[in-house]
Design goal:
536 residues; homodimer; GMP Synthetase, Chain A, domain 3; seven-stranded mixed β-sheet; 25 strands; five-stranded mixed β-sheet
Chain lengths: 536, 536
Amino acid sequence: MSSEYYEYQLTIDKILDSGSRSFPNREIVYRDIRRYTFSSFSDSVKRLMSGLKKLGVKKGDRVGVIDWDTDVYFHTYYAIPMLGSVLHTVNIRYPLELIVKTILHAEDKYLIVRDEFVPLIEKAANIMPVGMKVITYSDNKEKVKSPISSADFWELIESNEPIEVSEDLKENDMATIFYTSGTTGEPKGVWFSHRKIVLHTLSVSLVGARAPLNLTSNDVYLILVPMFHVHAWGYPYVALLSGVKYVLPGKYDYGLILKLMDKEKVTYSAMVPTILYLILSHPDAPKYAHVFKRWKVTIGGSALPEGLAKKAKELGITVIAGYGLSETCPVLTTGYYNSLVEGLDEEKKFMEQISTGAPIPLVQIKIVDPSTGEEKERGKIGEIVVRAPWLTQEYYKDPEKTKSLWKGGWLHTGDLAYMDEYGYLHIVDREKDAIKSGGEFIPSLLLENAISLHPKVSQVAVVGIKDEKWGERPVAFIVPKEPINEEELRQFLLNLANEGKIQKWWIPDKFIFINSMPLTSTNKIDKKVLREMAQK
Amino acid sequence: MSSEYYEYQLTIDKILDSGSRSFPNREIVYRDIRRYTFSSFSDSVKRLMSGLKKLGVKKGDRVGVIDWDTDVYFHTYYAIPMLGSVLHTVNIRYPLELIVKTILHAEDKYLIVRDEFVPLIEKAANIMPVGMKVITYSDNKEKVKSPISSADFWELIESNEPIEVSEDLKENDMATIFYTSGTTGEPKGVWFSHRKIVLHTLSVSLVGARAPLNLTSNDVYLILVPMFHVHAWGYPYVALLSGVKYVLPGKYDYGLILKLMDKEKVTYSAMVPTILYLILSHPDAPKYAHVFKRWKVTIGGSALPEGLAKKAKELGITVIAGYGLSETCPVLTTGYYNSLVEGLDEEKKFMEQISTGAPIPLVQIKIVDPSTGEEKERGKIGEIVVRAPWLTQEYYKDPEKTKSLWKGGWLHTGDLAYMDEYGYLHIVDREKDAIKSGGEFIPSLLLENAISLHPKVSQVAVVGIKDEKWGERPVAFIVPKEPINEEELRQFLLNLANEGKIQKWWIPDKFIFINSMPLTSTNKIDKKVLREMAQK
């Protein structure tokens, strides 16, 4: 008398299924090049699965993707994991040598490559995994002529009938793999199961509906996080589950992005602070005041400088911060209003929403002493350690680093922060960026924030340099908005110190003025480069 | 080099933890008797866990609860599963014999009993499980004097320090068990794991935020589904996760409920149609027009009659329907607006929101031929079969009924319905209530709906009686609003038939006028009793 009970698996196809059934005519838009409805997109994904399967893609096979933020990439977020294979979102901002290294480390058997990246891959053909098949495509659907191309992406879709996921697709199967940007040391691989992605999607969807974002299925997303970067923070999955229109910008061109935002009535975006800065300071920006007024933005990846947040607010943009790591899928906290903050005055609410934020549903956070692991009191600085249903189980093929990542059963973020009286995190430093001066930490993010408040400062980054007397001392790199001298800045900071906003001994010994910040492959300020510059 | 990776479990404590951290000062209110914040409630739950543990409650032990909708019941929804023991929500509307039967079947080792039910349990003491311990309480915290009482509920909380959940609590552990109301045949036991409840909570929270309910953390819930009934549709868990104030009405007293709704600024409720009917027709109702204007309601448990829905709408109430079974945790569908319906005119949207609804996130629904299991086209009537991550794995200790429940890997609801062009279900009948006349089904719910539109009809139910010529013929039971005769009703239905809204041959052969409907233990109309009355 055996039962045919169906053990429901939390797999990515369930997101696509829910989205395409509840919001069949919601759109996915790629520039002015192609439009899909959720329903036609679902059909297209299932044809791609069929095409990939015929090409030989099997359960567990890694499939790398090298592309901008396109409709092709959006397909692969679903089709590859739904086939039981593993989506490797290759970091296209890496130097070629590192790209190849990650492809070899992940053991990619297939690579999907946009035409403009084909020459790059041709160059490395002889050091790629043996037998790797390359699928190429171009925007206009013309076949890419290259000796390395084994198949055309569009043909895989167009010459096959849709198939459904196999019964042996399980929620703990590997769905995605990618490499952390590695501003220090070698890139490390992290991977995520279907289950983790589904649960992350549910929680990120839930928290988005909270104030001040108040996102609904009538919002329109244009996400400015490159799709090779940490599931583009989960939004390609959140979009289907939450039923929102999704606009894909291709390669970032801020003039075009502003136009797209206007034309497609975009209301929501997510990005690192640098991108927000680049958009707001774009020469066309003044023409789009009406677009900014309806715009809601989540900033993550790096701390949101108060100066930038205030500039956004003045334009009518609703801006909050979020926090997470490659290791954490990534979202851990966002600046939604919890029940303690919702009743505060506007100014105080604003300061909380642009802080590192409060844990989203199912996330557990502790602030601990980095050496002993003991929990710190509210308000005290320590390392952020976390538990959530969507954290990476390991650094791929690296048991040693995995061990320290998961020391004591909590994932160690390596970020130093305190939790304020309302339950919001305030990151004061990456552990590795911390400046220790005279035995005490100088929280570089707080200091940067203070400097960013000066009206002539456009961007700022502080790093530590070795100092015989103090161990380390801070050096500030400044991109000025208009000419400014060191003395002016020093006086400004002294005033802040007198007001009790910073410590006097935090004031940098040296200010270096530069034209633009060196950026990492994920558009964060590259402090490694700055440290080298500062030592000289 | 072993890692201490933490395998995150989807257990109920994670809901309590998220709620009490993000919404620490949100309130739980029990009448005008006691108030908690989420934070103090969490502390109280953890003290209760400690008290129960000291009393001897172990992992896997069943703990029955016999109570109205009180703060005590609310505690047990968390504390019992969080201790690894199993919450048995005993159906207090059953006759004593059936109550005992379910307690024996579930093998309850502990029973938590409100004072007014103690005499009932005393009466059955000698047929209860051997060694079962009874925990009693009264609202005013006076100890209950009874030979069967082993412990006082409040003392368990007040004389113990909070404890945390054990490391060996796993997401697939049994969390709850209860018995389906059994309008036909013996009650059947269904049980749910922590994981199922957590996933149900996430999805129900998500869909509540969709139009037309648009629920946010600033809504105030007063749920009018008895807490012994299917997780009171999930709201005691949804409340903590979504951060809403929750008002508990105790034993239902509609005058008091109206007062509570006013005083506590209630904005949202869920209930069976009978309860909405009782509230709207309460003599005090006209005094609460301002309360109804802000009120949003989900109706489930039975079909929402169009007449009642329209009356609610006239009062300014936003009303939608929902659908689910004891076997399904329960929510499967609700009348939220999907992307096809959101653009329709108000009248059409209203008809969809009061239909059986559209699948909520992660639910998969098919309409199949009940005999062959083959999927039916859109618009055709068949049985609803479902998959979701929160369906019961079995009828407890009943492999035979389990087998037919899960035939073919889909849960069989036994409900006949069609799916309309917009993707909304329309239940036309419980399979067991279906009336087959001349080889064709008469959809009793559609017929009841038609009769309910007559202005003099207050409530209606149609059942089939045996007929020599046709097999079965319909008989209508009517609770009139004001005097009405059979001829008037027959003419009304003939007009509807001429307009093509019903079939002429559906018109009942007999109309029976009664003062009130017989109800089941969960306040649904008891068609079994009506069928007996009709045969006489």
